[in-house]
Amino acid sequence: MRINRYLTGRWREEGGYHEVLVIALPLILSTGSWSVQHFVDRMFLTWYSPEAIAASMPAGLLNFTVMSLFIGTASYVGTFVAQYYGARRYEKVGPAIWQGIYVAMLGAVVAAACIPFAGVFFRWIGHGGLVEEYETIFFQVLCLGAGPVIASSAMSGFFSGLGKTWVVMWVNIFATLVTLVGDYLLVFGHGGFPRLGIMGAGIATVLSAFFSFSVYLILFYRRSYNEKYHLLKGWRFDRAMFGRLLYFGFPNGVQFFLDVAGFTAFLFFIGRLGTTSLAATNIAFNINTLAFMPMLGFGIATSILVGQNLGANRPGVAEKSVYSCFHITFAYMAMVALLFAVVPDLFIDPFAAQAQAKDFAQIRQTTIVLLRFVAVYSIFDTLNIIFASALRGAGDTRYVMIMIVFISSLVLVAPSYIAMIVLKKGIYTGWTIASAYVIILGFSFLFRFLGGKWKSMRVIEESAPSFPSTIPETPTMEIH
Q1: Which of 334, 333, 332, 369 has the alpha carbon at shortest distance from 348?
Q2: Are 154 and 103 in contact (CB under 8 A)?
Q3: pLDDT digits (tens, 9 = 90+) for 265-295
Q4: pTM for the whole thing?
């Protein structure tokens, strides 16, 4: 009875489960659509050839590493939007979004500049043969979609920062459909289209990125948004706001970049162990993504609720929201971890469905073991998802960046290199190191959150002092 009363009270109160789920559920479906997209994309490539699935994640992660610095910076406008919205300073929202779009323009130029050097880089990595050729092709195609991907991450911050997360959900769901249809037509050559293999998968991903960008651009032209939030009026470059975006958002981009770069380096080290080890690692990571990505919706919701409540000077409600997100996320991840450990074939069988049985047999056995590692670190990854998001929502991005720098370098990259490249240890040693990295990183964010410094942080500038008007204002009610 006491537990029932607690849960009922926690459901209804501010910062409780109901308030969290209203924001988080569309984001869960949204990020869930990303995981479905990646899962099906990699499943098709597994059916296409072992070399294609082996090449897809190193090349995809390298592309994401290049973009991540800009995505992390541009997407941080969502925190600005949330805090401006909480402070009721609506006219600042549009200019904040535009500063993120300018970051996206720079990111598109940098990604395009990487295309000519792809072949040289992957030859230096040394995966060799067809895997190296596929890595180069996939990376070069994906770089063409960098601009719209980064810009969409900034533009979606407008809707998520306001709490209108259902808009982000629908855009991502339809973008996922574009990718899946494109994969089906272009990877295998159905419907009269050429059989392009891994190049087709890359083209489908790029088309999806342009689709998302186009939809957000159309939505931005709504008159109601422009009048209240200055979405089009605020197009000018704002040096002061751009400087604040870099001050708070660039560390977010750096930690995003280093986190992705660390796992990219880890994958390259695994690739030195052979195609089977690399393919099994790719499949295990993609299965993990299927469970992990939806929970990023709770991470985004955490940042939104922290930002809005700190903007409204309600740190107590912000803290309660964080713990509500943590309770739900932990329960989900524990359940998924149990499934990974007990019924791994449930997740592996779709990859084996049309793969060559002889080629896939050893990959399957290795993947089953790797999913046990995933089951262990997934539970602790809840700390990363929720408490790092809470710190980012407050503006504590420099601490998050510093932790990523030290822990990624000292716990993941350097030990992985020594173990697998220098000492020639096997894949399971590498995965033990990766699991330790996730666990230690999660506790570093938890302890920072418990310290409470984040409660006094803000990313927006202080508003000018206001004076009473001579004529009383009429109270108004905004309907959402």
Answers
A1: 369
A2: yes
A3: 887 788 788 878 888 888 888 788 777 777 7
A4: 0.76
